[in-house]
Records
---
Amino acid sequence: MEAVGQEVLDVQQRVDALAKDFHEFVKKDQMAKELQLAETRVVKIRQEIDIKYGHYEEVRRRVTGILQAVDISLVKKETIENTTEEHMLAAPRYWLAPCLIALAAWLNDNRELADRAMMEALRRDDEKTSLFFALVTRRGTRYKASREWLDRYFGLQDPHQLEREMIVLIDGFTNGIFGPEARAKCGKHINEWIEELSQKVGFVEEQQEQWKVALEAKAKRLNDEVYPYLRQYSSTWPELETSLQGAKLHLVIHNYFKDIFSKEITPAKSIAVAVDALLDTLVSKFDDEELPLRKDERLQSLIIEENGDRNTAQQRFNAEKTLEHRVSFTQLLTNFAMHPDVSQASIATQKFSIALSKDWIRQAHDDLTLNNRAAVPKKIDLQIEEWTGSTINGDNEQELVESLTNHIHDRRDKDLAQVRLMLKHWVGLAAGIIFVFMGFGVPFLFVFALIGILYFFVSKRNLAKTKEKMKQDYDKLLQSCKDILRAVLSDVVDWRKEYEAEDLNAVKVSELLDEITPEQYTFSGLDNARAVINN
């Protein structure tokens, strides 16, 4: 029964190993299929965007084209007016089409047409139209008109639910594109928004959680080849892996912020060039009609980046919140700081957003640090060949080796106890002796007696060899297990050292954030006036 029980355990171990391999195979196969599907889906989405909204691209290209053509006086005003009218007919619902009509009429001093087109544009999308004309009038150094359009735009805003194109305004503010008065007014509104949001119950906690999610999204997975023995022989490895990733996150965050603040802000050659860049962003990146397809495109792109891991890609997508229709001002700051490639934020806006959010970032980072330290496993469980043990710092090697040795010896003794002479062997010996006494005068009985006695002694000799072979195998197993144990303990020591070293980097993030202020990161190179943020 003991032998059968041992065989059952061995079979169960093999089945468990097979199940693990099967699950890994299924996971890899599923990821490969998800990757292939995402690659196909991205192509189809982009084709669909081109088919449904390709005519919008023609309208978009005309915006800066008209302004630049007027700058160098190479295109007749009548030509500009005619081409804008054609695009108005081709894009009957698009907010930018009547903007082009108004722009062309303004250039031709046709006030009546300009007013009608402007009203139609405002009807289609009041916020984008107001921001569009604020930029256009700023480009033409019409400061009064630009301020009025900005006032209108700000009057439409709710800091709890801002449109995504707010990045264009913040980019203009941080890059010094608006005039000195408008820039001061922008700063005042930003402070008012933050003050209004701060009155909300639980605001601080909400910001901490929001930034915790954003910071955690920067965590990088450990290399699959590090700490191979801990991975294989410790059931505590998942907690160890998570804790080390959390400790390594400190340096990732520090380097990410440091890289942003170390980059030079290259000012545009002129206000026209700077505004043209913002106009390109406004008209090409923030059309709500395309938003569902853009969201799907972003998700599929993240799946491709994660090599088919849809769950991780979905988590990253949810954490970004860069393609939500309306979000709070503080969420926009998070998007600008952490996801500039998707939110279309410039370096100047990234710097300003981080500086403005630094208190929330520090609180969120401190919470992550405390939570990660609290989650570090104090005891690390080990399992080698059915033997289990535990260690804290890997310094109890002698104790564990003795425990492992006793375990292997117990297994050896139990298995050796199963290798013994059975009833059939003793029956063969007894029959041989009986046949010896009965075989006088009966030759064939001597033959049976000889067979029975030989069977007994040959079996006894074979059992002795089996025992000796078993002892040698267990000696080899014990040595192998000791080597594995020492390798695991070495991994434990290295892991503890690496964790402590990485955890010390936490203070670097706080020191970096303490050195920055929002006032440092509002560029005013395109105006002689100094940027001011009213407190």
---
Amino acid sequence: MPSNNTSSTPESQVIPKAQETPWYIRYFITLLIGSGLGGGAAAILLPWFLWVHCGMSSGSSDQLRLHLLYVTGGIIAVLTLLQTNWKNQGDRLKIDADIKKNEQDAEKNERDHIRQVHAERRSRYTKAVEQLANEKAAVRLGSIYTLVGLVDEWLADESLQDESDRLKEGQVIVNSLCSYIRSPFTLALKAEMFESDSEPDNYEGDFSKDQAAFREEQDVRRTVFVEMSKRSSAFTRDGIGTVIDTFPGKWSDFEFDFSRAPIFYPLKNLTIEQGNFASTRFYGKADFWGAKFIRNADFRNAKFTKDADFWGAEFTGNADFQYAEFLEDAGFRKAKFTCNISFGGAELTGNTYFGGAEFTGNISFRGAEFTGNAHFGDVYLGNVKFVGDADFGKAKFARNAAFQYAKFTRNADFWEAEFTGDTDFWEAEFTGNANFLGAKFTGNAHFLGAKFTGNADYGNTKFTGNTYFMGAKFTGNADFENAKFTGYVDFNGSYFGQYAPTFAGISGTARFSAQVDPQDYIFTVHEGSKAIKCGTATLLGKSFIIPLGTVLFNPNPRDKNSRTSEPAKPLDESNNGEDDNPE
């Protein structure tokens, strides 16, 4: 682990120049005695000499003697002051040196203490990691709490002034916790068996013992996520569900890697800061009920062996389920996706539920395969809301697909999607463009009451089952050129606001099966709608009223009779729909 400790080698002390002994201190005694003797001798001899030889009066000689003594005393006083000043400077420098030494000793002691604390912390880390392999669940659980506490200690360590150093220390421990989550656990393969209260027949081993070990390990591993959840970010939403504030948690800056992990325990009602579950295997039910995913959630290539429950889960970052495998039911009821979500290439084998889910960002199911029923609408849970673009291009729905009440706020792309079972878009709302170009509906296709505000493109679409557009409302263009209708077709009560629908044009003409009853084709629109202008066409000895320019075809490949009819010709008197509204 990195350390920020500095060297404890004391700095070399250099004696300042002011501490060098000056000459008047080196010869202080000599100068003092010399000054006293010299001044005394001068005070005695000089006045006498001047009195004897120069005729100085006795009063003047006494005054001169007195002044000489004053001068001598002054010199001695100056020397004493110099000596005292030098001594005081020395004492002051000595005190400063002592203070500096004490500070250096304190710093050294502090560094030694920090090194000791860090060493002790690393020792606890090493021991805790070793305890993760202990066979007793209580010991493993204690080591989890120890490691979590050590992360918090590193983050609060003010001796590491650089925050990046604290994060590095903490990330090492977080990596160890994630590594434990990724470690194999063989009993996870029997998760479904242990979730049952009855021992299966011919169980190899001690079922009760293995079941207890399995449940203990569930508790230990879930504890890791619980402790991470407590230290993760939080967010608030406004009245319409948009995330408006995010509050970083203690561990918000760490990276979490759970990829390739075996998950066999519930993760419901937890906050997951960064859900890297790429290539993870979920044994037993994958329970993310009410979970909150902060930042991106990565489930690429994940495999859900049993039911996957994301009821009420919230995704604030991008959610990536590309090439994930859902072997049984997948529930995303009431889930909220604030950013982009991708199920591209995912395989959803069981039933899939999105009732009441909200997709604020773009969503992609391009190339996804729904082997079971796909529910994107629910009468009781509310509408599925696609606020961003919804891409279902080349998706495959092997059984029933329900989009009733779904709301597509922007573009909805079902280009070349395949619907093998019945498909229900009953009262779905398409605010943007709806692209069904080249889609295949093998079962019945229900668009009853659907609303298309933008353009609706059904060009080259194949409707093998019955097709219902009863009560559908088209505000923009509705293009059915080159579409193929094999079963019942009902546009009764549909409404085309600005433009009459196009069934025949430059790109081709729609085709209608001649093997159904002529009464099974209904093109009577709602009052006030642009009319579907129809004509007559004949094939297999039967006449049909179908849109002008379209043709009948014989869907029986073994029948050698004519394969297609002539394009439908205008009726002499058409009462098959309301005329265009006058401009």
---
Amino acid sequence: MADRTPDLSSKSPDWWRQAVIYQVYPRSFADADGDGLGDLRGITQRLDHLAGLGVDALWLSPFYPSELADGGYDVADHRDVDPRLGTLDDFDALVGEAHRLGLKVVVDIVPNHTSHQHPWFQEALRSAPGSPARERYVFRPGRGAHGELPPTDWQSVFGGSAWKRTPDGEWYLHLFAPEQPDLNWDDEDVRADFRTTLRFWSARGVDGFRIDVAHGLVKDLAEPLRDIGNIGATGEEALPLVPPGSHPYWDRDEVHEIYRDWRKIFDAYSLPRTAVAEAWVPGPRRALYARADELDQAFNFEYLQTRWDADELRRVITDELATARAAGATATWVLSNHDVVRHTSRLMLPSGTDPAAWLLSGGSAPAIDTGAGLRRARAATLLMLALPGSSYLYQGEELGLPEVADLPTEVLQDPIWEQTGHVRKGRDGCRVPLPWTTDGPSYGFGPGAAWLPQPSSFAAYAVEAQTEVEGSTLELYRTALRLRRKLLEGETLTWTPDAPAGVLDFARSEDWRCLANLSGQAVPLPPGEVLLASSPLDGRALPPDTTVWLA
């Protein structure tokens, strides 16, 4: 078979179109200084793992100064490094080593809000109502006889009112935690500052950006502010209930003006910077973010949310390919990230099970067969990596890590736990630090204990335990990524018309075909050389919860 390895070098402006990007949650990846918190030097020391894995880029979740009210997404300075995680020199060393190893670097940009510790917000609190300092955020007087009621009924994504009252009686908007006041993107200071931020990191060698809450920047701040009533408040479920682009604060049409402005910055570099939107919006609206004069891609969260069902997955895959094609972009695929239950566990939950309720039970209702979950997760991964477009991996999934659902409540860090009155446990279970070795106080994460406790079962998942072990999940990922790069051709797939019920069967080219058996029984394999299978095959039969690549 001919080697069609695509040009993913620094000279190719389209490196992102079918890349594999690995998300690093810095505080949980590797701890070099022994304080229990992952840091930039720890990441740099472990970059050989990513290069050996075969990914094309690493995406760094926020590493900026933060009090960790929301895991680093409460940013006190968008152009610096949290001193607990390192320095700007450490960041430069990380980028330099990544580039030496052939890895691109993508960083998170958090433009919807700042930390309440940000100098701007502290200035706003010291300033009078109506002052220019307060105009950078969304301050309003309250309702009621004495202003004692919030300005609107808007709700925080994390639970409760999206408004917090200040000592002088005004209220400020926070669509997330109270420690994350929303910026006012009608203010030119805000727009200018983020232009500076994009140029700052681009000048330090960053290759791209992941835009946090990309659909939430612009709000309808015309007076009087609108209540939302029963149209929905906290996410994608609200959007179909109002005319597209007209929700008071989600996915407003005006947000695209910001990204057209940013595109000019990205294209000013000899290798244009790339960007992907975190936009929880339906497919037709998602395509708008990935137009040629805006961002390059937008995350397809429908795929992540789809059950392990062949018909549903085929529909979502077909729709996403059409959505990306309409924008001139490529599709994005993701199974796990820092905000959701790891797919090794999530895909085993019975239909209709709320992952939040399962977490609240400590993972006991229902109990999950971890072996079966790993088998299904491996099949899901091999299916995802065969699809046209970019695949985003989350740290630890290459080890087959399950969700740590039984973390004691006293160690939880996620603000969701407190803000929902202990109704939702939050996202700590997917953020437990990685195991690198089979022993030690934190299984090689660092010289001491980790900031979140790791279960003893993590020893069996450690990088050390799986390296060069035939059939291990780590070696499956390494083999799949090596093969994928050789097999890539074009950006389309062709569905096989006579696939058995419960089987996804498509060809990527004349030389490469993928079959995933999501049914409950084995099915015969068609003719062809087996290149890779997610689990052992039974002769020429494809067992349930197994994916195979055929030549």
---
Amino acid sequence: MAALRRIARERGGWWHAYVCPAHGVELEHGDLLAGAFPEGGARCAYGCRVDDEAVRGAWLVLSHQAWARHLRVLAHRGERAEAVARLVEYTALYEELAVERHGEAQGWMLRGRLFHQALTDAIWAVNIGHTVLTLAEEGTGDLQPVLPLLDSLERAALDARAVLTGQGQLASNYTAWLNAAGAATGRAAAAVRGREWDGRKEWLEGDSGLYAHLRVAVAEDGWEWEGSTYYHGFVLRAALLALRGTDPAELPADVAGVLAGMTDALAAVATPGGILPALHDGPYLRAPLALEWLELVALAQQLVPSTALDAVAGRARADLGGADDGLDRELGGWFAGPPLPERPAPGPLTLFAVAGYAVLRVAGIHALLDFGPHGGSHGHRDKLSLCLYGETTPWQPDPGQVPYAHAEFRDLYASTDAHPAFRVDGLEQAECAGRLLAADERSVTAEVTEAYAGVRGVRRIVAGEGYLVDLLTVTADAPRRITAQLRPGTALDVAAQSGGAARTTWYGDETLHGWHTALAGVPMRPVSRPGPGTADDPQRARTRVDLTADTDRVTFASVYQAASAGPAVTGVTADGAGLTVRLADGSTAHFVPED
């Protein structure tokens, strides 16, 4: 017998509280459409059962959002009676909650009515609006009772946006979703009334509309200002959802350019196998996130096609176990016209000068250097981090972030210690920005001078013939303990070599080999120890390696080669101020760090 499904009658809280206090993992969701919190408490993968007010409120967020998504699917499938009945039920519930905003929201939040945050209300409202729009295509008589809900949601979005813009926060990611909510619910209400939608000026074209938001929130290199993969996609997805029924050819040229640039940015950081690095404060791996990426790609491909994003969709489907509710079909024909011209595939080096990312691709290695601004509230203390991926293997990934309510693990994953960056005297980097020094078709060099007082770090990444060279130079005003950090997302072996470079082997779908030494005769210790892996499971131990030297100046030199590449690296030698790489075909190459 199928489980009884019902809509919960309580307000949702803050979804980030849905986390195990003991283990830092997101709790299991259970049947979100059942309308009742799991009996005995929410389960943790390690056997905990958690039940408190915050966790119950977080579960309600997930449940209400799942219902909104489910209603959109029902409308697409033609299951009209069920969809309309639930919309009417939500109309009554929302009216009951109209007496006040959420009284338990945290002080920094812009409060909603159904949820702690107005942002969460807006995300929910977007799906409600699109559910009604789809149903209205086949008739509107039974949708008249839903009009009070649509009107209330549009007014709530307008009021919340006015608060944000009054605070000078037009660039906030809240603004993107409030505009999407206003557009979706306003269009839906107009469709139910049988009228032309007259909200384009308010929600798209106006001084606080979507176009104005995108113009200030996205830099000229295509990145949303926070420099976070997740929040970049978060804003882009809101924009694409807001543009239902729009002819791409009728978009303002600069707005079309922004949307294309945002799509290019995701395509450039994605690996050939579809991994999107969790740069600056996004979830590392989460099924609802995979569904969001799949939705975004389905919409983006209709607006600005990008072959490089096809793999992202494939990866998202794999993370969902193949269950995507026919999302591509549901979103087919979202735009009212042919797409913009297809975007070219990224080249060997892609540089994002404002966000401060450089992507270098060489012989099976997808390398990403992070040297830019801190990233606002979503930044991490990780300047000059070097992330390394194979096609489908996260050898040395950005570790991502746990649900925010877990303060201890959240701070751990924002820390320098968690990232493939550098540390001095075991201390945390300051929140700071680096800068680009040089770049050409085969290399990139960046520096940071404010991570530690009296310390300068310079990292040069070079694409060799079938391998990658990493030269990290740290100079201090006095002898310090300087550490270059290896932070694997996969199993790793490390072996010290008598009189030579230390060796590492990184496993996964593909294998990576590494050689590590220090230049100019500086003694270096490759210290390995267990540490937490990526943020999807802080209890999963990985072998961390700290390449450490006690000095006032050191260049840590590393060479990486995918096992599939050739000719094979047979050894590396530190000679004076440079590094020589020897290959199996007898050739050699010499590399020196930037001053």
